């Protein structure tokens, strides 16, 4: 299986409390496995507050819904040994 790398990393975002924010990370190959999103070193799951999806096979997105002050911190996207943070 080819080594999947990060083509386009995460960008820092500033949002207001109560707003939604979306982070995008593009990888080199479709159907990447071993992918993980984290906020403040806590692994995120797809649920009503965190929407995790893949667009066009290579663009992985994380949308945090109705952010609060507790959501301040580092967002990390990892695929295999490669990581991008914002």
TrEMBL record:
The keyword Cytoplasm applies. Pfam families: I-set. SUPFAM superfamilies: Immunoglobulin. It is found in: Cytoplasm. Its main location: cytoplasm. One of its GO terms (cellular component) is cytoplasm. Keywords: Cytoplasm, Disulfide bond, Phosphoprotein. InterPro entries: Ig-like_dom (IPR007110), Ig-like_dom_sf (IPR036179), Ig-like_fold (IPR013783), Ig_I-set (IPR013098), Obscurin/Obscurin-like_Reg (IPR052385). This is OBSCN protein.
